[in-house]
């Protein structure tokens, strides 16, 4: 493991999303909300969703978190906005599988687009939870569970 | 006792085998001794030898090995009494660590002291181990937890602290050296203040004993706890010392074998000190290893080691402070060799991962001091902590890695 792996983790895509997060900020008139928190490193994220006609009309996030978490959240909002709920759930399950080091779900740039940039996190097990936190928080929001953690 | 050899960093480093290892294909630069210290070969050898040739249960055996193990275990108790400056070795209790020590004392206070309306006084810079047991104790008894504030430079606001001591205060519990800030608190002044009001003082020495000689008689505290693994010894072992009158007053914390004189369904009689607080088979190997660590420190030029640590602190502080956008949290005049820092727009977790790729081990997070970090308005910090086995090359590697990281993210 060396700087190549680090480069893989912090690719320019991730750095870009960290510097210029998409869909950032509190959403007005949200219908669903959840807070996510990683006690290990202090990542905090709020996910706001406005659902209409079984679709994600809007999704935004607010966060005090590390680059991996912020980039993952930013990419997540881009991937999920405008999608029907069922499809959003499938995308979420797929990405969580890709990010998990146990399940060997491969990353495919055609299917996953920019999200492939997150696949590098598997080489840094301590950071997987940073990448998955936004997605867990999304799930908690859509299920009206209120909060998500990383355990 | 004079040290056998004046402090020499190269020969010191060769005492610690892990320092010669590589991580991520780079030489290990271990800057996380505040989380756990590395162990000298003599400690590793002592533990290995115990298990290979001397292992037996203690206190109750009638054979040679058990006698020998018991002697080694009890000799360590005497050694530790001497190490922290008490003339009452039976008031030295072996625990799993500082956390367990504090829990034991909190339990004693719940059972024998605290009543509704009483107060426990701690500070805003405490480790969770010196917060949560008191929160629970207060919940159980209706007592209140008071928190003395910390100044912007990371020092304790002593005036505010003194104002918080009142006739309802039943205990002051305070960290000697802050694991997050490095601040060294003026314990002697604090015990004097507390005792003027008849209030006992518990000192959390987890981060002070590795860096400086400690004398509980001189500090005049009433309880002192620390952990073996931060003191170059094994994990899972620690020490609690308390004034006899307190320990005799407290009921047992854990019960079972070895802390009893007699067990009968008609009535069971507990041992006196120290046995009362050492239920079950202890971490004998841990005690043996801790003994070897104390011996290593006794033979070390501790003054030279301390000077070296402070020189590392100054060098690292100066160089890190010169990096644009980097802010050091905890700038007390009297500090241990610990530097917590943040960098604009770069989360400590990313700092940690980046440095890790270069073999530099630091800690990133809340350091079990969430209230303190909230007070400083940061969710987390990066923390580099130096022990006497770190070198100036370690400082250079840290600074270079941080400079490189800045370029990458900005």
Gist?
The complex is a heterodimer of chains A (151) and B (410). Chain A is α+β, with helices and mostly antiparallel strands and 151 residues long.
What would you note in describing this structure?
The complex is a heterodimer of chains A (151) and B (410). Chain A starts with a helix and ends with a strand. Helices cover 44% and strands 20% of the residues of chain A. Chain A has helices at 3-9, 12-19, 67-80, 85-99, 109-112, 125-142; strands at 32-38, 43-52, 55-64, 147-149. The radius of gyration of chain A is 14 Å and the shape is globular. Chain A has 151 residues and is α+β, with helices and mostly antiparallel strands. The model of chain A has no long low-confidence stretch (mean pLDDT 88). Chain A has one domain (3-149): Sufe protein. Chain: A (Alpha-Beta Complex). Chain A contains 6 helices and 4 strands. Chain A has a 4-stranded mixed beta sheet. In chain A, helix 3 (67-80) packs parallel to helix 6 (125-142) and helix 4 (85-99) packs antiparallel against helix 6 (125-142). Chain B is of the alpha/beta class and 410 residues long. Chain B has 2 domains: 9-30 and 301-409, Aspartate Aminotransferase, domain 1 (Alpha-Beta Complex); 45-298, 3-Layer(aba) Sandwich (Aspartate Aminotransferase, domain 2), CATH 3.40.640. Chain B is 40% helix and 16% strand. Chain B contains 14 helices and 17 strands. Chain B has helices at 9-15, 41-54, 64-84, 98-112, 132-141, 158-164, 187-196, 216-219, 244-249, 284-299, 302-321, 348-357, 370-375, 392-409; strands at residues 22-23, 26-27, 29-30, 92-95, 119-123, 144-148, 169-175, 201-204, 223-227, 238-242, 260-262, 269-270, 326-329, 338-343, 360-361, 363-365, 381-385. In chain B, strands 4-10-9-8-7-5-6 form a 7-stranded mixed beta sheet, sandwiched between helices. In chain B, strands 13-14-17-16 form a 4-stranded antiparallel beta sheet, covered by helices on one side. In chain B, strands 1-2 form a two-stranded antiparallel ribbon. Chain B starts with 8 loop residues before the first helix and ends with a helix. The mean pLDDT of chain B is 96. The interface between A and B is medium-sized, with 24 and 19 residues.
């Amino acid at each position: 493991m060396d700087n190549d792996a680090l480069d893989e983790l912090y690719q320019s895509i991730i750095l870009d999303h960290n510097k210029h997060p998409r869909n950032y900020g509190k959403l007005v008139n949200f219908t669903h909300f959840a807070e996510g928190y990683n006690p290990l490193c202090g990542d905090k994220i709020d996910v706001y969703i406005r659902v209409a006609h079984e679709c994600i009309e809007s999704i935004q996030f607010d966060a005090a978190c590390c680059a991996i978490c912020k980039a993952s959240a930013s990419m997540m909002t881009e991937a999920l906005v405008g999608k029907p709920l069922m499809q959003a759930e499938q995308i979420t399950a797929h990405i969580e599988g890709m990010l998990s080091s146990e399940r060997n779900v491969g990353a495919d740039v055609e299917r996953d687009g920019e999200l492939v940039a997150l696949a590098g996190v598997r080489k840094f097990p301590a950071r997987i939870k940073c990448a998955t936190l936004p997605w867990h928080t999304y799930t908690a929001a859509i299920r009206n569970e209120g909060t998500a953690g990383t355990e | 006792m004079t040290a056998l050899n004046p402090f020499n960093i190269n020969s010191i480093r060769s005492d610690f085998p892990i320092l010669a290892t590589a991580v991520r294909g780079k030489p290990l630069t271990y800057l996380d001794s505040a989380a756990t210290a590395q162990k000298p070969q003599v400690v590793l050898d002592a533990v290995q030898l115990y298990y290979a040739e001397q292992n037996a249960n203690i206190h109750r055996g009638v054979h040679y090995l058990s006698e020998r193990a018991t002697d080694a275990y009890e000799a360590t108790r005497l050694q530790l009494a001497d190490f922290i400056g008490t003339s009452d070795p039976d008031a030295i209790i072996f625990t799993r660590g500082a956390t367990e020590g504090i829990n034991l004392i909190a339990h004693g206070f719940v059972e024998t002291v605290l009543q509704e309306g009483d107060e426990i006084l701690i500070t805003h810079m405490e480790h969770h181990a010196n917060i949560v047991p008191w929160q629970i104790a207060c919940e159980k008894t209706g007592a209140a937890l008071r928190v003395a504030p910390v100044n912007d430079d990371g020092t304790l606001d002593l005036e505010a602290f003194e104002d918080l001591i009142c006739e309802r205060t039943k205990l002051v519990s305070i960290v000697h050296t802050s694991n997050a800030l490095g601040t060294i608190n003026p314990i002697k002044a604090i015990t004097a203040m507390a005792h003027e009001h008849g209030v006992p003082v518990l000192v959390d020495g987890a981060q002070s004993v590795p860096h400086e000689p400690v004398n509980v008689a001189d500090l005049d505290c009433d309880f002192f706890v620390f952990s073996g693994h931060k003191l170059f010894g094994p994990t899972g072992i620690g020490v609690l010392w308390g004034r006899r009158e307190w320990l005799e007053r407290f009921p047992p914390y854990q019960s079972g074998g070895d802390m009893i004189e007699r067990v009968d369904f008609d009535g069971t009689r507990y041992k006196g000190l120290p046995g009362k607080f050492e239920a079950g088979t202890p971490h004998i190997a841990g005690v043996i290893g801790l003994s070897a660590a104390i011996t290593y420190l006794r033979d070390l030029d501790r003054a030279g080691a301390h000077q070296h640590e402070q020189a590392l602190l100054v060098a690292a502080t100066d160089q890190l402070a010169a990096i644009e956008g980097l802010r050091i949290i905890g700038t007390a005049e009297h500090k241990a060799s610990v530097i917590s820092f943040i960098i604009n727009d770069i989360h400590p977790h990313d700092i940690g991962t980046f440095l890790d790729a270069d073999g530099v081990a630091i800690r990133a997070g809340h350091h079990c001091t969430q209230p303190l970090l909230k007070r400083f308005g940061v969710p987390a910090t990066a923390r580099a902590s130096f022990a006497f086995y770190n070198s100036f090359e370690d400082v250079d590697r840290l600074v270079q890695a941080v400079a490189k990281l800045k370029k990458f993210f900005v």
